[in-house]
Amino acid sequence: METLPVLYKKNVFFSVGSSVKINGTPIMPFCMSPELQVDFHTGTNEDSDIAFSFRVYFGKELVMNSRKNGTWEEEVRSTDKPFKDGQPFELDISVLSDQYRVTVSGGQNYTFPHRREPASVRMIQVWRDVSLTKVTPQEKMK
What we know:
The protein is mostly beta strands. It has strands at 8-11, 19-26, 35-41, 50-57, 61-68, 71-72, 76-78, 89-95, 99-104, 109-113, 123-128, 130-138. Helix content is 0%, strand content 51%.
């Protein structure tokens, strides 16, 4: 199966009702501390504010956050471990009216309240220690 480049970036126009599905696999065993990070940027460069960041420390924890004017805000952490060592995963990130909802491989759900207007999201970035097979943004139809 073909893989996508990592660092993966795509310009998007998100709003309430939009979503993105991400399929991939960690590229190293959990004992080597691989990570996954998905960022919803409010601009089209890496220095822009981040409306939503979902970062996975495989086998340890996951952290959700946002960044404003170059400063990370208060983290929301979970020590749930919904990812399996060496196994493919699917993330489904939905933009709801008041929060983001992340579903991991059709099971565990995580939520993060909006700190920036969802319509301000202009770029999605997926990176760190993963092999990506699919990233499918679904922008809300007008």
